[in-house]
Amino acid sequence: MATTATAPQVSKHWPASIYRRPDGGIEQFLSPTRMLEVIRSGEGELWVDIDSTDMHQHALLEKVFEFHPLAVEDTLSPRTRVKLEEYDRYVFVVMAGIRFDHTTRDPYDIETYNLYYFLGKNFLVTVHAVTAVGCEAVRERLQRSADLLARGAEATMHAIIDQAVDAYFPLVEQMNALVDRLEERLFEDFDEGLIHEIFKSKRAAFAFRRHIGPLREVLNILTNRPSTYIRAETQLYYRDVYDHTIRIMESVDTTRDLLAGVLETYLSQTSNRMNRVMKQLSIVATIALPLIVLGGIFGMNFSRMPLVHDPLGFWAALAAMGVVSAGIVWWLHRRRWL
Question: Over 90: is that where the pLDDT of 59 sits?
Answer without folding.
Answer: yes
